[in-house]
Structure formats: C-alpha cells, structure tokens
User: Which sequence fits this backbone?
C-alpha cells in the first residue's frame, strides 16, 4: 500500500526555540570568539558572588532584629554563616549530578535553568531573612543557590574550550577570574543596596536614664508611653561596626532594618535577568571550525591517560586532595567572617580607621586577591611546574597564619596603623596564593594522571573542595565563639558585682541566661570594667589562625 506523506515535525516550544541544543551552535559566518567570552565571563561573575562575598550578608543578619547589636531573637554567627558551605557543597553535587544532562541539552538551556534556580534562590533567601526563617534561608541561598552555580559553572568552560583550542590557558584563566571577581561585584552592589534600604531602629535613651529589666535573660526597656519592649544596648564598639550617626544607648528591637532582605531580592532579580541574557547569547563553534592559523596536534602525540577508576586507586589522588583541602579550608574560613573579623579585631584599637566602610573595602580587597591569584599562580605553574607552585603556596601560608596573632598584638600595643596594614597585606597574600591552588589543581591532575579524563577526575577532586568549604567556616566560627565565651567568663570573674547588677538587673551568678540571650557580650562587659582593663576582643581569632597554620603544615607533609 502506498504510504502517505511524512508527518510534519512537531512544532518546537518557545523555550526550545531559543535555548534548545540546536540553538547553541554559532550561525554561519560567525567567528568572533572574543564576543563569546563576554557571556561566559559574565556568567561566572554572577555565580561567583554570594559564595565569596557571604560575610557581607552574615555580618548584617546576625543583627537583623537588633540592628545596632544582636538581639536574643537574632541568628547566631554559626547559623548565619552556614549558607556559604551549603552553597559550595551543592555546587559540587549539582556539577556531578547534571554533568551528562548538560552535555545533552547544551550550554544555553543549562545556563537558562541555572538562572532561574540561582536568581530565584537568592531572592528566596531574601524572603527567608524577612520571615526570619532559617530553613528558607538555607534552601534559597544554600541549596538552590549552590545548585544554580553548579548548573551555570561548567557550560562556559565547555564553550570556551572549543572556541580557544590554541589558548586554553588564557581562556580558562580569564573565566575563573570572573568567578573570583564575583565576590567583588556582589559586595559592592549589596552594600550599596543595604545602605539605601536600611532603616535605623528607634532610640529609647541612654543606659541608666531608661527603666530596664531582664526576663529569661532578655533585656527590656520601658518607653515614654509606659510600654515594656525588648531592647538592645549599643556601646561605642557596637556602633563602630554598624556605621552611621547613632548614639550610644538603648534601641527597641524590631524597629529598624539592615536592608538585607530588599538587597537580596534585588540582587536575585539582577542575577536572573543577567544570566538569562548570557544563556541567549553564549554559543559554541560550528563542527570543524578552527582558529585561523591553528593546526591541532596529532592525537597520537596525546599523553596516555589513566581512567577515572584507575585514578581513584592511586594514593597520589588522595594525597593531592588532602593537600588541596588543607590549603583552601583557611580561605573559606576567612571569607565567611572577613568583614566581621576586621571590625571585631581592629575597630576598638583604631576606630578612626576601621569603620564600617573600611571593613567592606577589606572584603572587596580579598575578592581582588581571589581573582588575581587564579591568574598569577596559574601563570607561575606554567613557568615552574605545579609541584613547585604548591610548595610556594604552602611556604607562603604557614608564616602568614602563624604571624597573624603577633600583628594583632602589635596593633593593640602600639595603636599604630602599620601592623594593621601588614595584617591586611598578609591575609591578602594568603587568599592570593590559596585561591591560586584552585586554578593550579586541574593542571596538576593532568600532569599526574593525563589529560584525557581530567574533567571527570577534577569533578571527583571537588569533593575535597566541598569538605574545605564546610570545615573552614565551621572551624572559624566554633573557635571564635569558644574563645569569646571564655573571655566573657573571665571578665565576669573580675567585674565589680554591684556595677554588674545595676547594669543587668541580676547578680553575676545568674549571668549565663543573659549570655545565651546575647544580652551580655564582650563589648558590654568591657563597658563595665575599670579603665585600663585589657580588651580581649582583638584576640578571639588567634586560635583560628594557629589552627589554619597547623593545617598548612599538614598539607606540606
């Protein structure tokens, strides 16, 4: 029987018409590979922001209710820091889970979906801040944010590897520098938005001039209308971290805003729109395209490579992984608390220099170190080899970490800005070399195991990166909190009992509930101590630095 005419192909959906696999291939006559670098770089610039700029948010949301100081209802530093390691963990999970799917659907659909997940996740995290809902914060910034990063991270790599077969190092260096620069753009934009949307809390009066009481460790103050409201006390040290023209004294809880909610929603929308534009414009070259004058090397000259299974059975893989994790643990820790650390350690000794704006600038400087280190150490590895580059990295980190407490002591003792800038320069150098290991490690893997399966091998290596992303922030926060609590208890043993009871309404023996409610802090204890009492605040990060130095020593073993 005669067959009828073939059925017409089903019409493509609007999504597949613009983001489908066949839309990724460059049109006939298009050969401007540097134009493709723009959406590739911008994609990494977007998804690299929240992870490395997280302390700009965490330092604000630990006082979202109290504004000038943490209220009892505010999140702890540990709770506010956790979205960062969650994000980096799900980056690795998404990269491993969706790798084959990304190859099948192409760069555009992968980045398009990543735009929705990532931009929506950042905005959802903002909603979590507004509702003061910790699971929603973790879901938005952490799970969805990290998944979005994983969806968007590798497609630009795949595209540029095909556009730049003759300049792979230049292309990858530029691309990963975009990821490192993301924190710089994120911090600058977020801080501007938070300043715009932020609102000062209601001032109740100076301590001693307003009737106060404590219940279950929480400080309450009576307003002029006779209403009893939850309050926080802001000392000069507290206000130095916040900035603005605010007076010392009591402020009503829940009457102001840090602007973090609105800033996160706006940033999420910008990321969604920007990544959507990148998805529509990125492309790969047509099959058979080569740069003018470039002749690919003969495949026979390719270095023999181990399979992934073979690599997993070698001790060298795990030795490199442990070294990589030890190096990067400290950097993830520094980025998780950078802004707050700079304020806590130095604002008391140099209040005229270490302002709220100064701490934001410090965080942005570390982001510059992040992006430039990926370029610089990658270039160095080309010149002296990966093993020697790793030795340079470790040899730089060990003295930096162990000397950091000495520089802090010098600032406190001399009240000089010279050791402050030495501390800033040394931590900048630490971030520079350690983030350089992120760019150097894939080349090290290729040198050890061959180039053919380096992508899959590096995917397994990212497990060690995820371990570092979890361990770094948690170690920093745990050790800092432990030392802070120890310092508070030491001051409690020295404070004049009558003065303490007049300030907090309870005897020293009943101080623990007030510590748990954040009513008692180091700055508030120091306000009660006699003149000349050494302030332990600058030294609460000493043990973290010694621990990171110890990990750097372990990485050299």
Assistant:
């Amino acid at each position: 029987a005669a067959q009828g005419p073939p059925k017409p192909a089903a019409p493509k959906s609007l999504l597949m018409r613009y983001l489908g696999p066949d839309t990724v291939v460059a049109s006939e006559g298009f050969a401007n590979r540097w134009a493709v670098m723009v959406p590739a770089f911008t994609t990494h610039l977007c998804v690299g922001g929240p992870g490395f700029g997280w302390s700009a948010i965490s330092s604000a949301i630990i006082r979202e209710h109290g504004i000038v100081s943490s209220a009892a209802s505010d999140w702890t530093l540990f709770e506010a820091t956790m979205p960062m390691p969650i994000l980096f963990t799900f980056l690795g999970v998404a990269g491993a889970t969706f790798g084959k799917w990304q190859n099948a659907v192409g760069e555009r659909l992968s980045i398009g979906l990543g735009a929705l997940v990532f931009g929506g996740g950042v905005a959802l995290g903002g909603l979590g801040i507004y509702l003061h809902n910790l699971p929603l914060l973790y879901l938005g910034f952490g799970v969805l944010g990290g998944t979005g990063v994983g969806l968007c991270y590798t497609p630009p790599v795949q595209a540029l590897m095909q556009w730049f077969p003759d300049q792979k190092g230049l292309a990858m260096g530029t691309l990963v520098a975009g990821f490192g620069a993301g924190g710089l753009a994120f911090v600058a934009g977020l801080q501007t938005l938070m300043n715009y949307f932020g609102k000062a809390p209601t001032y109740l009066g100076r301590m001693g001039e307003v009737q106060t009481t404590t219940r279950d460790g929480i400080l309450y103050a009576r307003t002029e209308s006779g209403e009893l409201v939850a309050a926080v006390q802001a000392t000069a040290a507290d206000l130095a971290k916040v900035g603005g023209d605010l007076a010392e004294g009591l402020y009503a809880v829940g009457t102001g805003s840090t602007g973090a909610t609105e800033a996160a929603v706006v940033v999420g929308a910008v990321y969604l729109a920007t990544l959507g534009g990148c998805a529509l414009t990125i492309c790969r070259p047509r099959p058979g395209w080569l740069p003018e004058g470039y002749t690919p090397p003969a495949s026979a000259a390719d270095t023999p490579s181990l399979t992934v299974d073979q690599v997993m059975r070698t001790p060298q893989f795990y030795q490199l992984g442990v070294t990589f994790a030890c190096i990067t643990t400290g950097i993830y820790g520094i980025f998780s608390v950078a802004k707050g650390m700079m304020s806590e350690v130095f604002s008391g000794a140099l209040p005229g220099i270490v302002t709220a704006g100064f701490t934001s600038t410090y965080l942005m400087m570390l982001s510059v170190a992040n992006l430039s280190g990926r370029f610089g150490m990658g270039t160095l590895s080309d010149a002296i080899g990966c093993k020697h580059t790793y030795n340079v990295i470790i040899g730089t980190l060990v003295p930096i970490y162990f000397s950091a407490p000495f520089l802090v002591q010098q600032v406190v003792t001399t009240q000089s800005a010279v050791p402050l800038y030495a501390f800033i320069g040394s931590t900048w150098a630490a971030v520079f070399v350690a983030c350089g290991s992120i760019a150097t490690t894939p080349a090290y893997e290729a040198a050890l195991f061959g180039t053919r399966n380096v992508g899959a091998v590096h995917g397994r290596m990212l497990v060690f990166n995820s371990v570092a992303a979890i361990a770094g922030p948690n170690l920093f926060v745990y050790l800092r909190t432990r030392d802070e609590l120890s310092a508070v208890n030491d001051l409690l043993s020295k404070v004049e009992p009558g003065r303490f009871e007049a300030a907090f309404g309870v005897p020293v023996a009943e101080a623990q509930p007030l510590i748990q409610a954040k009513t008692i802090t180091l700055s508030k204890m120091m306000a009660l101590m006699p003149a000349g009492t050494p302030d332990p605040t600058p030294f609460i990060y000493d043990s973290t630095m010694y621990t990171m130095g110890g990990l750097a020593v372990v990485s050299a073993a």
